[in-house]
Amino acid sequence: MNLHGLHHITAISGDIRKNVDFYTHVLGQRFVKKSVNQDDPGTYHLYYGDYNGSPGTILTFFPWAGVPRGRPGHGQAYATAYSIPAGSLPFWQKRFTDLDIQTGEVETRFGEQVLTFFDPDGLRLELVATAEADLRPPAPSQDVPAVHAIRGFHSSTLGLTSAKATAAVLVNAMGYRQLATAGARARYTVATGGPGTYVDLLTDPKLPRGLEGAGTIHHVAFRTPDDANQEEALASLHQHGLASSPIIDRAYFKSLYYREPGGVLFEIATDTPGFAIDEPVETLGQKLSLPPRLEAHRTEIEAALPKLF
Ligand code: ZN
Q1: Is residue 129 part of a domain?
Q2: What CA dihedral angle connects 210, 211, 215 and 217, to 10 degrees?
Q3: Which residues, in sequence order, are CB contacts of 192 under 8 Å at separation 6+?
Q4: Residue 291 CA, ligand 1 centroid: distance in Å
Q5: What is the number of structural domains in the chain?
């Protein structure tokens, strides 16, 4: 299976305007795409990332109005980490204090400093001040200077009661390799490695079972270059005895979904065609993007959706 790391991560949010404000202004991400949940067009699907919406930078949300808070725990992607430059942690600590953002203690993980913080729905996020070269250009932002800006994802941490079966899927079916272990955490990487490729397996039998709801991750998507690689990935999953969805056209990428044995929903998504397929890069996210089959209903759909700004 030809995977190149994380593609996007999808979470569930409550209040939509707080969500937009947090990811665009507080974190300085670009609002890349305003679309609807293809399975539920009365709900937005919002995408934040770098300027182009590059794979490996995209955090997406299903804002379900009135959805109760979930409970982070095992069987879920427990934490989502962004990569920032090695010297930028003090900037972010001050920023979060000034903006009254809830944070945790700074911890050292595999020799790097990690700051935990939470979005308005309590979603567990991390900044990893990485000593590794991360040459991905940050999203342009009026709120966050480029020198300190988020470069994209660093890693996804999966909460598990036992890592063995999940590790076997990562290694045997998905081509990942173990990079390091420390205590309850084991880090895996794929392809060329580096920030944006890492998956950490956190084994903690004391974690409660995760419950889906606002402030939790819905699924983690891994990137594969194109349709041919996607077909190969599907065949490989089946060879390894993993049940999956068929390949589904999501307009900006093609997707297939499967649940790894620890309970986390995984997706494999293609890098192609990308977010500029239905609007210019310069104006990404400004208009509501609808799949062609819903275009005829644009007026009703737009009227039913809440205003974002
Ligand atoms: Zn997805």
Answers
A1: yes
A2: 60
A3: 4
A4: 15
A5: 1
Cα 10 to middle of ligand 1, angstroms: 6
Tokens linked to 150: 């988020």
H or E stretch at 232:
helix 227-239
Is 1 inside any structural domain? Answer: no
Run of H or E including 220: strand 217-224
- Check if the beta carbon of residue 196 is closer than 8 Å to that of residue 223: no
Quote the ligand 1 centre to 105 CA distance (angstroms): 30
CA distances from 4 to 50, 115, 189, 210, 244 (A): 18, 25, 9, 27, 20
Q: Is the pLDDT of residue 41 over 90?
A: no
pLDDT tens digits, one per residue of 283-297: 999 999 998 889 999
If you compute the radius of gyration of the chain from its CA atoms, what whole number of angstroms results? 18
Question: What CATH number is associated with residue 69?
Answer: 3.10.180.10
3-class secondary structure, 64? coil
In this structure, is residue 309 part of a structural domain? no
Dihedrals phi, psi of 226, to nearest 5 degrees? -155, -175
Q: Which of 156, 146, 153 is nearest to 218 (CA)?
A: 156
| Cβ atoms of 83 and 153 closer than 8 Å | yes
Tokens 């310069």 locate to 282
CA 247/CA 231 separation, integer angstroms: 8
CA 279 to ligand 1 center in whole angstroms: 20
Residue-number span of the structural domain to which 216 is assigned: 6-304
Domain membership flag for residue 173: yes
Ion ligand 1, residues whose Cβ is below 5 A away:
10, 221, 267
Which ranges in 160-209 belong to alpha helices (H)? 164-168
pLDDT at 102 > cutoff 80? yes
| pTM beyond 0.90 | yes
Quick one: CA dihedral 9, 14, 20, 23, positive or negative? negative
Please report where in the chains the tokens 């293609």 appear, as a residue: 270
